[in-house]
Amino acid sequence: MSWSGVYPAVTTQFKADESLDLEATQRLVLQQLDDGVDGIIALGTCGENSTLTPHEKQQVLAALREAIGPRAPLLAGVAETSTAEACRYAQGAERIGVDGLMVLPALSYKAQRHETLHHIRTIASATALPVMVYNNPVAYPVDITVDMLQELAAIPNIISVKEASENVRRITDIVNALGDRYIIFAGVDDLVLESIMLGAVGWVSGLTSAFPREAVAMYRLARAGRYAEALVIYRWFMPLLHLDTIPTLVQCIKLASALVGRGSEQTRAPRGLLQGEARAHVMRVVAEALKNPPPLPR
Q1: Sign of the C-alpha dihedral, residues 244, 33, 41, 181?
Q2: How many CA atoms lie less than 13 Å away from 86 in the CB half-sphere?
Q3: Within-domain flag for 56
Q4: How many angstroms separate the CA atoms of 31 and 260, rounded?
């Protein structure tokens, strides 16, 4: 398995009564693959991991594994509230046949340094799957710092870092401290071009769910060093990408996706549908993007 490229953090689709819509979730993922994405991350923040029961999470992973087959890597987000439950979930994902894990610090608790290291180490040791460590201290107030990554480097199946601290200097610090020990993925949509220029070889993306062709084109241009062409797409994309960095990112991404015919905006409570000016803003941003599409390489 080659870890690089555009990996959308796909949404979980729900019916109007908030029950799982597995067939719709499968369809959306297959659309993403048809539009050129390189891998799939299920049950991350955009997948509303924290609102699903353990059984529902297994259902989603099994449905996506069945739909994707060998076409692309499938990673499962691990965002449980306890270390023991995270290990059980990771082992279940391995039995289903996912290709890797994206591991967050335990949700609902601002863990101390040693607690965070213990949590990640324990999950990695509970499975043979490769692990991507997800660092997002802005949304989940635990910072997995460079010195912590140096300690985790002793664990062979921790191979990647999703860097979403919103501090792009961190990428250079990781490379300077650890060379090529970790595969670095950009984790902030509206910092992706800068992240690729500094050494990220992959992108875990939210707005790719709505605009996969543009995301893939921009990524590939940037990785080829064609930054001027990538910048044209990036500037067009930026108002959309900003939607990934606010508390209502899930609702924004689902609404944007629904507006372009890529699934339903239905979320599961406590998340509710966007209303008022928040809803109008997303609709304006999407309408402007559709009115002035960027040039894509043939």
Answers
A1: negative
A2: 25
A3: yes
A4: 12
Give 161-187 pLDDT, tens digit per residue.
999 999 999 999 999 999 999 999 999
Q: For 276-292, what is the mean pLDDT? A: 98
Query: Could you tell me if 260 and 210 are in contact, meaning their C-beta atoms sit under 8 angstroms apart?
Result: yes
Residue 62 belongs to domain with CATH number: 3.20.20.70
CA-to-CA distance for 3 and 5, rounded, in angstroms? 7
CB 94 within 8 A of CB 61: no
Q: How far is CA 104 from CA 4, 64, 78, 92, 149, in A?
A: 19, 21, 6, 17, 14
Q: Is residue 298 part of a domain?
A: no
How many helices and strands in the chain, by DSSP H and E?
A: 11, 8
The reply to whether 29 falls in a domain is yes
Element holding 5 (H helix, E strand)? strand 5-8
What is the C-alpha end-to-end distance of the chain, expressed in Å? 27
Average pLDDT across the chain, whole number: 97
Say how many C-beta atoms besides its own lie within 10 A of residue 206's C-beta.
28
Instruction: With respect to residue 35, please indicate whether it lies within any of the assigned structural domains.
Output: yes
Count of structural domains, the chain? 1
Which residues are known to be catalytic? 134, 162
**Mean predicted confidence (pLDDT) in 39-47:** 97
The residue range of the domain holding 87 is: 5-291
Q: How far apart are CA 162 and CA 202, in angstroms?
A: 9
Quote the tokens at residue 68: 């994707």
61 three-class SS:
helix
Q: What is the spatial distance between Cα 164 and Cα 185, in angstroms, rounded to a whole number?
A: 9
Torsion of CA 274, 269, 81, 133, to 10 degrees: -30
Amino acid identity for residue 259 in this structure: L
- As a whole number of angstroms, the distance between CA 296 and CA 298 comes to 6
β partners of residue 35: none
Residue 9 φ/ψ, nearest 5 degrees: -85, 95
